Amino acid sequence: MRQAWRVADVRSAEKALMATVPEGALMQRAAAGLARRCALMLGAHGGVYGARVLLLVGSGDNGGDTLFAGARLAARGAQVSALLLDPDRAHPGGLRELRRLGGRTVHDLPERCDLVLDGIVGIGASGSLRPRAAELVAALAERRAPVVAVDVPSGVAVDTGDVPGAAVTADVTVTFGCLKPAHVVGPAAAHAGIVDVVDIGLGATLRADPAVRIPDAADIAAWWPRPGPASDKYSRGVVGVATGSATYPGAALLSVSGALAGPVGMVRYAGSARDDVVRAHPSVVTADRVSDAGRVQAWVCGSGLGTDETARTEVRGVLASPLPVLLDADALTLLVDGRHAEDLRRNAPLVVTPHDGEFRRLAGEAPGADRMGAACKLAAWINAVVLLKGDRTVVATPSGQVFVNPTGSPALATAGSGDVLAGLLGSLLAGGLPAERAAVAAAFVHGLAGRRAAERGPVTSADVAAQLRPALAELLG
Ligand SMILES: NC(=O)C1=CN([C@@H]2O[C@H](COP(=O)(O)OP(=O)(O)OC[C@H]3O[C@@H](n4cnc5c(N)ncnc54)[C@H](OP(=O)(O)O)[C@@H]3O)[C@@H](O)[C@H]2O)[C@@H](O)CC1
Ligand SMILES: Nc1ncnc2c1ncn2[C@@H]1O[C@H](COP(=O)(O)OP(=O)(O)O)[C@@H](O)[C@H]1O
Fold it and tell me: Where along the sequence do coiled-coil regions lie (predicted)?
């Protein structure tokens, strides 16, 4: 599991580390790692010697890292030019070193270059880029040269992953010590490109809790419940699916197909699409209503359910059970008027899976610029695990733990793909995973399936469901 830390925590760790090393040592470690990565990129396209490298240099230490890295590239024969945003405030030691090794300063963006290092601002940035920096970033976007962002792409909000204005879009971001939220969450993540972490020795002093955890395939494979010799269909868990309606029978089929790909031994369906469900999935045991469904270990409720009194009774029914419950789509709409406030006071886990519109209705405001903060706030408020959908889906727990999903594809933005996710997540709940792991694992595998489906052309949610099994076969070996 990778982790990312907030600026304040990085700063304290850096301060503690700096007290133990010679002055300037951290910047040299950062510059060495940065130069190495740049040399690798140049090496793949003709070599370092003679390559035209442009440094965009702000007046903080981010610019300092960039100048020292540029000096190292100049020492290897690159033609390095530095564009200083504020020449009087550029890092003096870095500028001296660059000049000593043959680098020069320029006043405008050159027409052509082989690599650009973005050292305008790093973790010391505040607010959106100032006009001169923003102009430069806009002009850079037209040059189409490969860009390496130093620590973070300039213009992103480091702690939230928001992109409040102009921002550099990098091919590679070389960051120091640890990941920061902007590398993995929100619209900023798409600006970072491939992210490389350079070890500057921060590990020992970085003691704060991470701001966000990023699962990898090994985590999901380790968590995924697997049947053993003593398993039977009941001991593997039975998930109840209360979704779909006469108007939306497809939602029932999609959520059931998601549930069937999960680890449970049986799927029970309760609702008016039962005939369609059995026709498509003969192994599913069906009933008309939640109250008649039989024993399950977790409930999934909401996709395509409608918002009439029958739907309300079903939502009330699943919430009244002592079991883990996932509420999605129409069930979330039904929560908004407050009539289920009492039902929400339950001891068993609750997971809600809103997209932005559902989130706004539930929380009373849109997730806004800080998706992690917003998800945490809602999770604490309703005492539920919140899975906030989107690119880089966020999972937040009532106690404030946050996960960001690294898999997925924009192709998942297709009607019904959330229904598939809900079914899979419910299956993991019934299979015995703690709610936050079920949410994280479901988002991860759903994202893998989305990617696989996208490789085969335009994606429907049925394609996503069909790719869950192959994605799992690959993941679980
Ligand atoms: N600490 C360490 O141990 C290590 C730190 N390291 C490196 O230091 C970096 C942090 O350096 P930092 O603290 O000097 O801040 P930095 O990111 O250069 O930004 C400050 C400058 O930006 C300016 N500025 C601010 N906002 C702006 C805006 N919106 N638009 C435009 N400009 C804006 C601000 O201007 P001012 O407000 O002063 O006028 C000031 O000039 C970090 O990311 C990493 O690369 C590594 O060497 C490893 C060891
Ligand atoms: N731009 C995007 N990039 C990646 N994934 C996305 C994007 N937009 C939506 N998704 C994913 O697609 C799914 C859509 O779910 P949802 O909005 O509930 O659809 P539906 O209600 O039609 O089933 C979610 O898993 C979400 O994370």
Answer: none
